[in-house]
Amino acid sequence: MGARFDELAEALVIPVPEDPELVLDGCRRLLGPNLYSDRPGAVGDGLAPNGDTERMLTLWQAHARELLQGLGRRPGFVLRPFDGGASLFFEAPVDQLLTAAYVIEAAWYFTACEMLGRDSWPLPRMQEELSRIAALEANPALVRLVDEADARGIDRLLDDDAITLGHGTGTRTWSLDDLPQAPDWRALHDVPLALVTGTNGKTTTTRLIAAMGQAAGKVAGLSSTDFVRVGNEILDRGDYSGPAGARLLLRDPRLELGVLEVARGGILRRGLPVTRARAAVVTNVAADHLGQYGINTVPELAEVKLSVRRALGPGGSLILNAGDATLRQIAAEHHLSAVWFALDPMAGEIRTARTTGQACAWLEAGMLHLFDGKTDTALLAAADIPLTLGGVARYNIENALAAALAARALDIPDSAIRDVLSTFRSDARDNPGRANEFVVNGARVFVDFAHNPHSIAAVTSALAALPARRRFVLLSHAGDRSDADIRALASGAFALAPDVVVAAENPKYLRGRAPGEVSGLLRQASLDLGLAPEHVLLAASPADGADKILRMVGPGDLALLLVHDERAKIFDMLAGTEAAAT
Question: What's this model's pTM, rounded to 2 decimal places?
Fold first, then answer.
C-alpha cells in the first residue's frame, strides 16, 4: 500500500444519502486488536435516532455480506446495537482494511437508499468498484510478513505507510512498498511492554511503571497524554495516548522496556497498536467522553477499556481494580482471568485470588501487599508513598498497587518497585499536573489537571483531609460538556468545602459556547451549593484565576487549582512566587 494510500483513500466516492433520520456516523479501519475482536478489521457506526434500528442493522449486515461474497469472502460479523443506532464490524486481512471500510460504507449506502426509498447504483457497479480497490490494496508480502512474525512470537505495528516488527532494541521498520523477502529474524524481538488505560489515574500509573523500569536499570520509555519519553529524553510533547505515540516510542532502538498509556479514543478510532504486551492495566471506569462512537453508558465504556486484554501476549496479565463495580461485573460476564488489586483486603476478588493461589495486591492496616500466588510480600506503608499525601490520597494507593503488579509482570524486582514508590513525588518533575504541591505565602497550593467529576472528587476528597484555615478552588472547563456535566464538576470540587471559588473562562476551549457561559454555569452551581455571592469570583482565564487566588492566600490556607489550559503559564507563576516546595 504505502505510497498508494492517498490514492486508495480517494479512490471511491459513495453518494451516501444525507438525512437526519439515518446517519453514517463514521466507518474506519481498526489496525489491531479492538473492541470487537483480537484481529484487525473495519467498523461503522450507524444512527437511526427515531427509526427502526433493528431493520437498519439487518439490512446493513445483509448488504455487507452480499458485497463481501462478490469479493470472494465470508467473514463473520459483530453487531453492537446501542441507544439510537448500531455498529457493524468484521475482520479483514491486514492488506484489505481500507477495502473493508469501503464495504461498510457501501453496505450502508444500499441500506439508507432502501430505507429512505431512494434509487441506488446497480449492485454490479458497486462490486466492480470494490474489486478494483481490493486489487490495488492487495499486498501479499505484507500478509506473509505479519503471519510469520506472529508464528515466531514477534509483535508488529502497522500504519498507512510502514510496518514495524519487534520493539525498541529489537525493532525494524519497512515501507509497505519495499518489504523484505527474508528479514533477519534473529535481530527482531519484543521488549517488556505494559498498557495502561482507565478513566482516571492512567497517566500516573504509566509514569510509575516506567520509573520502576528505569530504577531496575532498563532504558524505559512511555507514551502518554503529555509526551513520549525514552530514558530521560522527551521525544515529543502532546497527546500521544493513541497508536501514533506507541509507534514513536516502540520504534526507538534504545528502548528496553515500554509503557503505553491507552486512551478510549485511540482504541475506537484505530484499535490497539500492539498484540503481545505482558501487562494491561485498567485503573477504573467512570462517566467521561460518553456519546461518541456509540459509547453512551459507563458499562459500554468499560467494554472499550477492557479491549486492552486483546493486546496481551501468551501469559500476559490483565490487571483490574476490584473496587470498581463495573469492571467486576463485566469481568464476570466475560469470564475474564484477571489479576486484581483493591484497597479492601476482604474484597471478594482478593479473597478468592489468595485462596486459589492467584496473583493480586491489596492494602491492609496501612501496608501495601503483593501476592504472587504463593508468597505475601508486605511492600511498604502507604503513608511512606509521597503520592498518597501521607496516606489520604487513596486513589494514588490504587495507582501504586496497579503499577506494582504491572512491574512484577514485566519482571521488575521488588527493590526497584519499592524504591520508586518511596521517592516518586507529586511534583512538576515526576508527575506534572497531578496534585503538584507548592507553598505560596505560607499556603499549600495544589495544581491538578483533573477534568471530570470522578477525578475531581477523588482529588478534593483527599485534600479535604488536610487541615486548612481557608480553602480556595479554581474551576474552569471546556465548553463541549453538557450543562449538567459542568455543574457536576463544581459539585465534585465542593468535597473540599471551599470558602472561595474562582470560576475562570477558558477562551481557547469555548467549543460552541458563548463567552462567559461556562464560567457563569460554574458560578451559579457554586452559589446553588451554598457559597455567598461575594465568595464566588469570575476570572477571564485560568491564569487570571490562579493569580486572583495567589494574591488572596496566606499562612494556613489551602488552594486547589484545577487547570485545563495555560498550564505552563500557571506553573511559571507558581515557581516565581513559591517560598518552598514539598
Answer: 0.89
